[in-house]
Amino acid sequence: MSGVPMSAEEKDDACDDPGTVRPGGRTARVRAAVLRTAGDALAEHGFARLDLADIARRADVGKSTVYRRWGTVAGLVADLLSDMAEQSLPRTETGSLLGDLRANAELVRGTLADPRQGALFKAVIAAATTDARTAEALHRFYEIRVAEWAPCVEQAVRRGELPEGTDPYEVIRAVSAPLYYRLLTSDAPLDEAAGVRAAEATAAAARAGVYA
User: Fold this and answer.
1) Which UniProt keywords apply (predicted)?
2) How do residues 25-78 score in pLDDT, each as one tens digit?
3) Are 124 and 138 in contact (CB under 8 A)?
4) CATH number of domain containing 98
5) Which residues of 134-169 are buried (b: 16+ CB within 10 A; e: fewer)?
6) CA separation (Å) from 193 to 10, 117, 196?
7) C-alpha dist (Å) from residue 164 to 8, 25, 41, 71
8) Which of 63, 75, 125, 127 suits 93 as a labelling partner, its CA being 20 to 30 A distant?
9) What does the DSSP assignment read for 111-158?
10) CB 138 within 8 A of CB 125
11) In degrees rounded to 5, what are phi and psi of residue 97?
12) pTM value?
């Protein structure tokens, strides 16, 4: 014990594990401010230059609170990805496989084409190649998003649009794969046509039994 009294902010956070929050109130506002600032910093400077003390300063939050709640940069990025998964838009149901896949492709394309979000994903993907905790968090993010959209493929199978045994997770991954490839390997624009092509190619392959 240091004998130094804790601030009200520190007392409020002392019972929480790093990266966890209690719903509502000031704790939620602190988390939102820190995660928003972390996302901005990732988009601006990348993972390598992310610094907890700088995040605390920019978010106007006590440095000790940030270190106590998240512990490390990797812990902060993991919580950021969890929050992004929670905040992502829900699945769209159009009544047809192609319509659903186009909606999924447009959601992914719009996110990656956004200057802030596209830069943020580039930074996180780059970090995941060298940091195990970031990689684990990124995998969880995509597991959540793919699981959100997999039912549209299952519904298409029940409607007779796709062969029995079609793997819904592989179909959804196939929609976004060319969009991420373009983001990471090319300076070609991520326009609406790119999303349409990704959805139509995936739908055609799924109908042909490629993912069965």
Assistant:
1) DNA-binding, Transcription, Transcription regulation
2) 778 999 999 999 999 999 999 998 999 999 999 999 999 999 999 999 999 999
3) yes
4) 1.10.357.10
5) bbebbeebeeebbebbbebbebbbeeebbeeebebe
6) 50, 20, 5
7) 58, 48, 46, 47
8) 125
9) HHHSHHHHHHHHHHHHHHTT-HHHHHHHHHHHHHHHHHHHHHHHHHHH
10) yes
11) -60, -50
12) 0.81
% of the chain exceeding 70 in pLDDT = 89
Q: Which residues contact 47 (CB under 8 A, 6 or more apart)?
A: 73, 77, 123, 124, 126, 127, 131, 134
Cα–Cα distances (Å) from 128 to 29, 48, 186, in that order, read 27, 11, 20
Domain that holds residue 116: 88-207
Residue 105 is given by DSSP the state: H
Tokens for 90, please give them.
């829900």
CATH number for the domain spanning 43: value is: 1.10.10.60
Q: Are 123 and 43 in contact (CB under 8 A)?
A: yes
Distance of alpha carbon 165 from alpha carbon 163, whole angstroms: 6
